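User: My instructor asked us to take a sequence, write out its structure as tokens, and then describe one feature of it. I'm not sure where to start. Here is the sequence I was given:
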Amino acid sequence: MRLVKNEKVIDIMEKTLDHIDARLVDHGKRVAYLLYKVLEPQHSYDSKKMQNICILGMLHDVGAYKTEEIDKMVIFETVDVWEHSIYGYLFLKYFSPLKEMASVILFHHAECKELKHLENPEHQLLAQLISLCDRGDVFMLHGGNAEGFKNYINKNRNIKYYDYIVDMFLASGINLDNIFEGVDTDEAFNRVFRDTPLSKEEVNGYIKMIISSIDFRSSQTVIHTVATTCIAGIMAGLLGVSENDIEKIKTGAMLHDIGKIGIPAHILESTDKLNDADMEIMRGHVDITEKILQGNVDADIKCIAVNHHEKLNGSGYPKHFGVHDIAFYDRIVAIADIFSALCGSRSYKTAYPKERIVRILSDMSNQDLIDPEIVALSIEHYDEIVEAVHKESLPVIQAYNDINEEYQRIKNGAIFSKLPHNA
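Assistant: Let's start with the prediction itself. The structure tokens for your sequence are:
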């Protein structure tokens, strides 16, 4: 069963990243568009490979979301290019279906002399083309013109860009003067970018990548989504929910905090109690989640995701739903979210012991905040749930540790060690 439609994955991706900074999303889309325009006349790639390349182009600056130095990405003569390139490489390698092409992003600002460390010829080609398309877009963004950019890249032949790459770019006939007009109207581009079928594995992979973009920004949330999804799935099974509906519940749970992508990192990672203004911003993540998912997932999955802070007595948010408004599946994820938060460490708290978690859940149930049947079941199966969460969380924790270790290795000079062909 495909719970997220093929053509909606890109929309969710765009909307999610758009809530951090629309400039980089629009820039990424234009770079992908230019990539398509350069490569399409070559007839070297089928629609599936072209789709992957276009998505790679759209995400080429994804590392900037981690560094929070987005302003630097739209400066033409970018000086510090490695920081966001390293983070983008690591994100794509560990969290995306494009891991085989991740090294392209690591080297997408590299000059010719540095590309010798990237052995795969196709990756060299794509790294250089993304660099050219990236700089072309930024050049025009700052008031340049097509002729000026042509002069720039000709001056940088065999310095920044190989001869054959420059020739390929120029031979494509791209009209940079019209770069801001064609991204959403070119039917052929949209056919490759959006309508080329994705497998179920690819759809799931991209959804997980989108969710990981939140955890990628904040170490404090690194396992929360995985834990919430795991808990919701276990409790749904114990409650006799059908397999198809368990998948719906798990999908809603996986997406429940996607709106946190739009919350500033200093609020997400605050070690102090949030003041009223910051709490209001934090609560806004539910509205952002709804905006991202609206029209892109089934209505019941959207409700599962956006209702996880509602309370049975009407004291929750954002819509202050009451007992008759909150569906049973929504209640499962709401409790799974609380269970996960209590079990996990955050910037403002350590993981709570079992006794305290049981007491908090029981108190909330007695206060008509959360469903008593589901609470009773979660307490009855507490040890089983915690063990399953621990098992599901280990790969995520390992990936996060591996990212930190690899980042340090690259920053310490290993970036110029030869990478394997599939790095």
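For the description part of your assignment, you could build on this observation: The chain has two domains: 6-198, 218-404. Try explaining in your own words what that tells you about the chain.
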